[in-house]
Amino acid sequence: MSLLWMACPGEGQGDDKKQDSSTGCTYGGKQYKEGENFPSSDGCNTCLCAAGGPVACTEKACQPVSGACRRTGCSGQLCSDDDVASTCEFRPEYACYQTALCERQLDGKCAFTSSDALNACLARGGPADGGTVGDGGGSGGTGGSGDAGGSTGGDAGRCDFAGSYDYGYIGGLRISTDRSFLSPGNLYRHVRSPVRTTGTEIMCAPVMPPCGAQDVITAYDIEVHDLAHPDVRAALAEAQPPLFGHDTRPVDGVVFEFKTAAGRSLLVGNECGTTADCRTIPAGVKQLRDRLIALDAQQLGEPACKTAGFTQ
Q1: Using one digit for the tens of pLDDT, what is the confidence trace for 256-268?
Q2: Model-level pTM?
Q3: What's the fold here for domain 156-308?
């Protein structure tokens, strides 16, 4: 294809396309070296910084593009023409895209528009509010919706619980109830209480794994990858405790309850299936529930809990 000496579509004359044989070429507010190729403003042609300073661009008709770009992916981390299936795993850096502009770029493709704020957020591994800053290496799990995988590392300075939480199943016909408690100081405690007063309550408080420990669940996983998930934040921000999934109580079913010391809570039942008037369990909420259940299995398997009488 031949090169035409032209002002490419969308580029004005004067300051936007300067010729300076001593410094190369300026096009679209950017400086290019002599002999350097770069895309034209229409996104479908190519320009060259020619010897002596002028800009030469190919001239071909651009394919028309239409339709709005959409934010997609399980965590809104993708910008595309269509809905895109992605692994339902939250990574702290995904939160950076929540305020980024998803729009069609000069090349006609949908993408998040680059900005200093977005680039800085991605470089940090997440927003600077301290709630979602990760280790830059992705989720602590192995991927997938409801991932209850263990840590693959993390920032030791963040390996602690930011607040106090308790969780467990409620309802159902049982002879005892189990409740787990998490609190600052990287503390875990599990209590099993008899439903009838004739029973004996037992408790254990095994040490939580240190941050950076491999293939185990740590406070870092729960704080950074689960509690910082947009689905969980949105659920805990609701005025009334939301119930996700199908509630089979009061017959013999149970629901999973998670509570914070601030009085916020959420409930998770069975999958909705064909049940009417049922709120689908969000991926992030399911991930939190599954990881906490896996944490119980991990901690109750420790000698301190076995000695206390826990057999899971």
Answers
A1: 999 999 999 999 9
A2: 0.53
A3: Mago nashi protein (3.30.1560)
